[in-house]
Design a protein that fits this description.
One of its GO terms (molecular function) is exodeoxyribonuclease V activity. The chain is of the alpha/beta class. The protein has 3 domains: about 130 residues, RecBCD complex, subunit RecD, N-terminal domain (Arc Repressor Mutant, subunit A, Orthogonal Bundle), CATH 1.10.10.1020; about 260 residues, Rossmann fold, CATH 3.40.50.300; about 250 residues, P-loop containing nucleotide triphosphate hydrolases (Rossmann fold), CATH 3.40.50. Helix content is about 40%, strand content about 15%. The chain has a 6-stranded parallel beta sheet. A hairpin with a 7-residue loop joins β17 and β18. The longest helix has 19 residues. The radius of gyration is 27 Å and the shape is globular. The structure holds adenosine-5'-triphosphate (ATP). The site of adenosine-5'-triphosphate has 12 residues, from α12.
């Protein structure tokens, strides 16, 4: 090791350990991170080795990064900018700020400025606990990336699963083969033979050619429509393929959360019913295209108290084609399990929006696979094949004679069909995505120049905290329709008159004014609960942060107090009728999944000892199987949940609301990124409002990007 490591903190193992402990006590790193580093130390000592303090430090930091969604640490990036890479001290102040009060403490970045890449490489390669992957070790170092072994294995399994599928021959590769001709006929029937570029048609063709494909697109670009057409085209090919003897493909549809599965369930049935099946080759029947969507956990067969799934390499799924919607939310752990459970021949199609936030847990698989999607990188071979099969010429800007194998399996939908050309939500989302929120756009938002977007306090640069929180609370009650252009009246979307935006009073009134009683049948209660849950979905406050007055914790308290002061709810704490709750962990016994939302009802279903009717509280959750039934669960049985007047943008992924209000705090922090703002805006179907603690935070946030360290793109790019 070279002489730059002259600080005792990196020459004495006990001192490094003590520093890590200090960081852990200040909640900069997790107990798990410290524990992992100590495990590495113990392992080395068992081998009679004295661990390098630098390896102890890097072990803790790698584990810390995994907790922040990274699959690994890229050492060069870490050394170039440790502050940004590690985000330490953390963006949200810990409850215990003893450390930050101590001026003598060292940040990881202070320590790492003294370290070179060569120091890291040499310390790591000397350590027994670190391997290059050729032997089992808790840390893996490969191409300058340091992994926890578990995460490295996930990435390897995903890369292998993708590469193997990309290499499989396809019956439609030869344009004059019968299968390719059938595909071409099916696509022309589904989309028309038009010569203008139809990205949906191109996406179907690309995905039909490969056993692994990704279709990415922003909201309303037709991902669902495209995949339904794709499945019809694939079944048409299967029906004509003598090798399959007319057997149709076994297709399954899945999404990472119950909410996302339910949303796809709602839209897919309609899209399937519109298919021109009678005109397609292959004699496809309506039942050949599935309309039921399940969660990935259910599909893979999750078992209580186990990370392992029932379906795996030894017990694969009975499936020929698997479609995963909202794939941006799938972390590397779950994605690796998907590849394990898929039979070797099975085709995997990932759908999602590459610009959204990545999964909460480690990995950004979809985002990484789509890194080059904007520019296409289709080879001349692919382009010629697409022209023959679809009759469409790919624009020159998307052609690249050096395109990689993975590029040929990624399709991007580029036209929004949901939002009209002048929709503020669409224009704003595009501007955020391009990190281009100019003054004209900000003025448009402030002055309600768009029909559907309003920046409620955008004219005040630094609004006062209390009055802003008060304004958010009032907005939460009514949705402030008057602030929108034309008071939110008279908008017509796709030929239908849209009601003005609403706030939480809408569902609370419904809950209060119902006429059901103890004689009412259970079905009537189910119907009411469905209506109330739907009404709750009409409005949602989204926050960037968890802690502090601008975070979900503070805002939930504030809003509950305000609703109570308005007599809209009977109390502001604990359980009460009207309390909306978000499930924050999977509960397999109750059949509830992380992200499920329920509303508390007071129901007359109990009796006192003397036989009188007694009101009791039950939380109504929509069923997870896509049917219109309700699960009524006693509050005492619910373990992991929080009130959900305000929700983090992270948790809102996979959901959509009629009206969302995004709350941005009064100062910039690393969590405020373009992806977060984009995800928040695109959760809104018809109305979007913005509240800021400081007007400049909006523009500053969209200048920041989420960059997650991982090696997937590099492994696949090297194929
Ligand atoms: N090629 C098309 N021509 C006309 N309308 C279309 C086309 N494709 C999709 N649409 C319409 O646009 C709307 C959005 O389509 P779809 O639900 O398929 O998009 P999506 O990308 O899955 O949306 P989401 O953002 O909800 O995931 C639907 O009303 C659909 O009928």
């Amino acid at each position: 090791m070279n002489g730059t490591l002259n600080t005792p903190l990196l020459t004495h193992l006990d001192k490094t350990d003590a520093l890590l402990e200090q960081w852990q006590q200040a909640e900069w790193i997790r107990p798990l991170d410290l524990g992992f580093a100590r495990l590495i130390r113990a392992l080395s000592e068992e081998q009679g080795e004295t661990l390098s303090p630098l390896v102890l430090l890097l072990a803790a930091l790698t584990s810390h990064q995994v907790g922040r969604g990274h699959v690994c640490i890229d050492l060069e990036t870490l050394l170039a900018d440790a502050d940004t890479t590690l985000s330490l001290p953390p963006e949200e102040p810990a409850t215990n700020d003893a450390l930050s009060a101590d001026p003598s403490h060292l940040k990881p970045a202070d320590l790492l400025t003294r370290i070179t890449l060569a120091d890291c490489q040499s310390a790591l390669s000397d350590a027994f606990a670190v391997s290059d992957g050729s032997r089992v070790a808790p840390l893996i170092l490969t191409e300058g990336r340091l992994y926890l072994r578990r995460l490295w294995r996930y990435e390897q399994r995903i890369a292998e699963g993708i590469a193997r599928r990309l290499a499989l021959p396809s019956p439609v590769t030869e344009p004059d083969s019968p299968a390719a001709q059938t595909l071409s006929l099916a696509l022309n029937t589904l989309f028309g033979p038009g010569e203008t570029v139809d990205y949906q048609k191109l996406a179907c063709a690309l995905a039909a050619r490969s056993r692994f494909s990704v279709i990415t697109g922003g909201p309303g670009t037709g991902k669902t429509t495209t995949v339904v057409n794709l499945l019809a085209a694939l079944q048409a090919v299967a029906g004509e393929d003598p090798e399959r003897a007319g057997r149709v493909y076994r297709i399954r549809l899945a999404a990472p959360t119950g909410k996302a599965a339910a949303r796809l369930n709602e839209s897919i049935g309609g899209a399937v019913s519109r298919l021109p099946l009678a005109h397609l080759p292959g004699g496809i029947k309506p039942d050949d295209i599935p309309t039921k969507v399940t969660t990935l956990h259910r599909l893979l067969g999750s078992r209580p108290d186990s990370r392992k799934f029932r379906h795996n390499r030894d017990n694969p799924l009975m499936v020929d084609i698997l479609v995963i919607d909202e794939a941006s939310m799938v972390d590397v752990d779950l994605m690796a399990s998907v590849f394990d459970a898929l039979p070797a021949h099975a085709q995997l199609i990932l759908l999602g929006d590459k610009d959204q936030l990545a999964s909460v847990d480690a990995g950004a698989v979809l985002g990484e696979l789509c890194q080059r999607a904007n520019e296409g990188h289709y080879t001349p071979d692919t382009t010629a094949w697409l022209a023959t099969i679809t009759g469409t010429q790919v624009p020159d800007t998307l052609i690249d004679s050096n395109g990689q194998a993975m590029d040929q399996a990624v399709a991007m939908l580029r036209k929004s069909y949901r939002f009209q050309q002048d929709s503020g939500i669409r224009v704003l989302a595009e501007a955020v995505n391009a990190s281009n929120l100019d003054e004209r756009m900000r003025r448009h938002m402030r002055e309600a120049a768009f029909d559907d977007v309003i920046w409620l306090n955008g004219h005040i640069r630094k609004p006062e905290l209390d009055s802003t929180l008060q304004q958010i609370c009032q907005h939460a009650v009514t949705g402030t329709p008057n602030a929108f252009r034309n008071q939110g009246q008279g908008r017509v979307v796709k030929g239908e008159q849209l009601p003005p935006p609403v706030g939480y009073r809408h569902y609370l009134d419904m809950l209060r004014d119902h006429r059901l009683n103890s004689d009412s049948p259970r079905e009537a209660w189910d119907t009411l609960a469905l209506r109330v849950l739907e009404a709750f979905n009409d409005f949602q406050i989204l926050c960037a942060l968890r802690r502090g007055p601008w975070g979900v914790e503070g805002l939930n308290d504030q809003i509950a107090e305000h609703l109570y002061s308005q007599k809209l709810i009977p109390r502001s704490q604990g359980w009460y009728a009207g309390r909306p709750v978000l499930v924050t962990g999977n509960d397999y016994n109750l059949g509830l999944m992380n992200g499920d939302i329920g509303i508390t009802f007071s129901v007359p279903w109990d009796k006192t000892a003397s036989g009188d009717v007694r009101e009791t509280l039950r939380v109504a959750f929509p069923s997870s199987d896509g049917t219109e039934s309700i699960r009524w669960i006693s509050p005492s049985r619910l373990q992991q949940l929080e009130t959900v007047y305000a929700m983090t943008v992270h948790k809102s992924q996979g959901s959509e609301f009629n009206h969302t209000c995004l709350v941005l705090p009064d100062r910039l922090s690393p969590v405020l990124t373009k992806e977060l703002v984009y995800t928040g805006i695109t959760r809104a179907r018809n109305w979007f409002s913005l509240m800021t603690g400081d007007a400049s935070v909006l523009s500053e946030s969209v200048e920041q990007r989420v960059v997650r360290a991982s090696g997937l793109a590099s492994i696949l790019g090297g194929q």
